[in-house]
Every structure is written in structure tokens, then in C-alpha cells.
Amino acid sequence: AEELIARRDAVVARVQEHYFAHPPRIERGWRHHLLDTSGMAYLDMVNNVAVVGHSHPRVTAAASRQLGLLNTNSRFSYDGMVTYAERIVELLPEPLDTVFFVNSGSEAVDLALRIVRSVTGRKDTICLAGGYHGWSTATDEISTTLNDNPHSRGTRPPWVHLAPMPNLFRGEHRGADAADRYADAVRSIVAQIPGGPAAFVAEPLSGNAGGVEIPPGYLPQVYESVRAAGGLVVSDEVQVGYGRTGGDFWGFQMHGVVPDVVTMAKAAGNGHPIGFVVTRREIAEQFSSQGSFFSSVGGSPVSSAVGVAVLDVLRDEGLQENAARIGAHLSTRLEALRERHSLIGCIHGRGLYQGVELVRDPETLEPATEEATAICERLRELGVIEHATGDYSNVLKVKPPLCITRDSADFFVDRLDEVLSAGW
Ligand code: PMP
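Above: the input record for the complex with 4'-deoxy-4'-aminopyridoxal-5'-phosphate. Below: its predicted structure, written as C-alpha cells.
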């Protein structure tokens, strides 16, 4: 394991970070487990990419079969891309009926930005302070997680407008009227943009902020005010879509809204690079009238076969229902843990997207950042892969593959209890 890290450091850019100070060498994965080369098995609590589980035989079979038949660029006509697009559209409410295929979340959000700009003829974009939307130049400009870039909020280009993260635990408004106060902040940003905004871009549950739930009533107000000013709304579902929140397939459905543009990636390919954007036909046509769009392997035959297989498994194995069931169980158990361990300030999220926020002081909410790192290291020794996220890297991620069992969920909570009780 150590030798591999030395080789990695010699040839891979160091900014491509790895988990843990001394990472195990992981060469196998199965369902919601990872195996290292010493034979140790770990419960994977952080992998929302492997949504149907690692090495799913149906996904493997679909990819291998298609690789042996055809893999080409999307300018050829083949069934896979059409079938996959039909399957995606079936899962979305009207009028979201037109798909663009790319290869990653960054590409999907980047393309969404191009679409909203070209359709509105504007550039100003409103997004949430603490959101993350990708690494490409445009998506990096709307990404402001302090753990990735502590200077991000002070260095945005003038077209980026940051609205406060509607975080009821740590944000500036926490009371019963918080949703309205946060929506007021967006209304006032909208009013200050001469010519109006091109778009509002946000996740419907804030993933990188730590699984922070957006209060009910906020998004409907924000969507209304942005649309009233002629802007469009983009729901970034890259982390939280695809049934992860349990009650709904898409995160925006929790809020009773329908966005103009949806972006998706990660889980769509279960680790295979797939990203897509869905919008209404009329928006897609307006965008297309301004030039062509081509992603060489976006929607390739292999990507499409993998994408359809992932959707089949989600449906056939009832994984959204499992997310609801195991998610509810985890919430109950984690809340009980919070009552016994003062280090736990809050349990964020729902379904299988939750966050355990660690604080040193329940009054000041001082983030327990170093503690979070040490707890993750100790959990690894006990067989759990954990990692912290959020502006202060003090929120333990709870976003395992959706096939996780109740026993494994209990294993995670019991190990966390053990570490919090015995020290790290
Ligand atoms: N949007 C969100 C909400 C994300 O969490 C991420 C990745 N963490 C992205 C976009 C970018 O996706 P990718 O890493 O596939 O480019």
C-alpha cells in the first residue's frame, strides 16, 4: 500500500488527493463493501457513485457485452442511446423531455450553464455559498466549498452571485421563518442584477455542504422569483438524484418544483463515466439553433448499455425503497447517538444522503475538524470507510451504495458509537 502511494505521488498530480494518511490498497469491491490487498473488508459509507453496489453483475455483463459488439461516437445511429434517453425521460415529470449526453457531472453542469446563457442571452448566475458543481472552468466559478478552496467566496467573477446556504443548523437564519428569509436573500440578489439573471443553479439537498436539507418552501419561492425575472432554474442532481433521498427519484421532487434543466452524472454510470442534461424541447431547440453540440463518447453504446442496466437494477432491486427504509433506520439510530455524544451537533439529510456534523461546542458550533479526520482514520481501522465534508470538513458523509443492508447500517453506527465512546 505504501509503495503504491510513493509511485502515485511520483506520477499523479498531488492535487488529485486520496482518502486517509495511509490509504489501504483497494483492488476489489462487492456490493457495499471494499476489499484491500491484505484481505481486510470495509463497509463503504461514502460511495454514492456505486449506487447499485460495486461490481454489480448485471452492470458488468451489460458493459462487457456491448464492448464486444460496438462502441463508437454518438454521431452514429444505434438503439442504445435512444432507449437510454427514453428511460431517463420516463422518470422525469413533464415537460422535461429532451436529453443531452456527456461524460461527467462537471460536463453536465457546464453544458447546463451554456444552455441557460444561450437561451436567455444573459450570464449572471445565482448559486449557493458552499455549493459544489464541478472542476471545469465555468463550474469551478460557481463552486464555493471552503474545504476545496478557502478563498473561493471572495474571488468569484462578477457574473456569479452567491446566495446564503439555507442551512438551518449553522446558517444565518435558523428560525421558523428561515425558508422565507433565505428566499428574501435570493429575491434581493435577483433585483440587483441589471437585465435579470440567466439562472439559479443549486442542489435540492446540499451534498458537499454535508447533506444539508434545503428547508421546505425555499425552492418554490426562489424558482418563482428567478422565473419572474426571466431566468431559468437548474437542479443539480449529480449527488442526490436517482432515488438516494428515498421518498423521491429526483431531489427536486422533495420540494414540489419542476426545474427547467436537470443535471445528472455519478450514480448514472455506477462508476462508468456518464453524465446527462435534461431540459424541455423548446429550450434544447433554442440552444441547438446557436450551433452544434457534440461529445465524442457522451451517450456511447457502452455508456448507454451501462446506464440502462443501472436503471434496471435500481428498479428490480427496489433500491429507492431500500434508501427510504435504511435511511429512516439510520436517522433514528444516529439521532440516538447524538443524544449520547455531545460531539455530534446535528444529523443532516435524509434517505441515504445524510451527514453527521461534529462540533466542539453546541453553542458556538465550533467545527470539530481535526476530530472528524481522526475519527475517519480510526473507523477505517475498524472496517468502515468514512470521510468528512462540508466547509470545515467536519461532517461525516453517510452516502453508501443504495444496496446497503440494515445489518451493515447497524455496523456503521455501532463502530461510530465505539469510536466516540472509547476515543480516537
Ligand atoms: N455537481 C455536484 C453536485 C457534484 O457533487 C459533483 C462532484 N462531486 C459535480 C457536479 C461534478 O461531477 P464530476 O466529478 O463527475 O465532474
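Notes for the reader.
The mean pLDDT is 97.
DSSP finds twelve helices and 17 strands in the chain.
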